[in-house]
Amino acid sequence: MSDVLRTPDDRFDGLPDFPFAPHYAEVVADGVPPLRMHYLDEGPADGPVALLLHGQPTWSYLYRKVVPVLVAAGVRVVAPDNIGFGRSDKPARPTDYTFARHVAWTRSLVTGLDLRDVTLVAQDWGGPIGFSVLAAEPERFARVVAANTILHTADPALADRLTWAVHGSGDSRVVVEEALLDYLLHTQRAPELRASDFVGAATVAPVSAEVLAAYDAPYPSVEHTSGLRQMTALLPLTRNDPGARIGRRTMRALEEFDRPFVTAYSDGDPATRGWDAVFQERVPGARGRSHVTIAGAGHFLQEDAGAELGRVVAEVIATT
């Protein structure tokens, strides 16, 4: 394996509204040595567990407004940083990151901590990763709150269902939203990537300079951003992509998931709009539930409406 980088601890000193102690676990995936994954672990040790999963280009800092609401409700909150993000280890070679490994690393954390009766809270890539962990460890998950997330399948049945189209067409063509391609190409061609640029562009309310700097804290050099850059390259745009095959397998598992599944999407996120309705139709546990639309929030609804999302999750846990 290539060199593995660790962000110096002092990069995380004094971040706004982030008083949480770091925790670390060794996680494993096929083809690479064990790595160190960072996670938050807040609230009562014997409380019901909420597993908060982030996507690209954020880290557990994204959930700083959600965590206190859940802790006050008696919930134990576990919020990891994906490998390559936040305080977790960062392999320097982009090809060390695969979708299957991201799933395996998160699964390794869940099994290593022996998390049970889990409420999965998934946003952005937290959905494809977290749903795939649920498919592999279904007995550990009691309920799901899906928040501005998707599932990569490239399924032709998604035609005309999504604002940002990604689906097969006929036997050998695909339809992909131009904005998604622009985003993907930018992340591969830009000489530098700053997480803050994406966060600031995908929220409704202005984000302070101090908070934007906190999103950039894990990445003191270009070498530290390999995982951030590669995650976008892993987006499955065709039915033949390995990630799309994982996504279809995971969707089949979700179509058998009859425990509570609640969508909490914002009204200001074209990138995931339409997926809430798809999940509501396909997941048995979503039928008859009180699904939520969070007003006045963008893609990163944890920034725009973190406390409200926390209350939604707490209510789902308390009432199901």
Tags for this model:
320 residues, alpha/beta, Rossmann fold, two-stranded antiparallel sheet, globular
Question: How would you portray this structure in words?
Answer:
It is an enzyme of class 3 (hydrolase). This is Haloalkane dehalogenase. Its EC number is 3.8.1.5. Keywords: Hydrolase. There is one protein chain. The chain is α/β, with parallel strands linked by helices. It has one domain (about 5-320): 3-Layer(aba) Sandwich (Rossmann fold). About 35% of the residues lie in helices and about 20% in strands. The chain has helices at about 65-70, 100-110, 125-135, 180-190, 195-200, 210-215, 225-235, 240-255, 275-280, 300-320, and strands at about 5, 25-30, 30-40, 50-55, 75-80, 90, 120-125, 140-150, 165-170, 175, 260-265, 290-295. The protein has an eight-stranded mixed beta sheet with strand order 2-3-5-4-7-8-11-12, with helices on both faces. A two-stranded antiparallel sheet has the order 1-6. Strands 9-10 form a two-stranded antiparallel sheet. The model has no long low-confidence stretch (mean pLDDT about 95).
The overall average pLDDT, rounded, is 97
Task: Let me know the CATH homologous superfamily.
Answer: Alpha/Beta hydrolase fold, catalytic domain
State the separation between the terminal residues, measured CA to CA. 44 Å
Proportion of beta-strand residues: 15-25%
| Alpha-carbon Rg, integer | 18 Å
The percent range for helix content is 25-40%
* Most strands sheet: 8 strands, mixed
Low-confidence stretches: none
**Which architecture would the CATH scheme give at its second level?**
3-Layer(aba) Sandwich
Query: How many domains?
Result: 1
InterPro entries: AB_hydrolase_1, AB_hydrolase_fold, Epox_hydrolase-like, Haloalkane_dehalogenase
GO molecular function: haloalkane dehalogenase activity
Enzyme class: hydrolase
Organism: Nocardioides caricicola
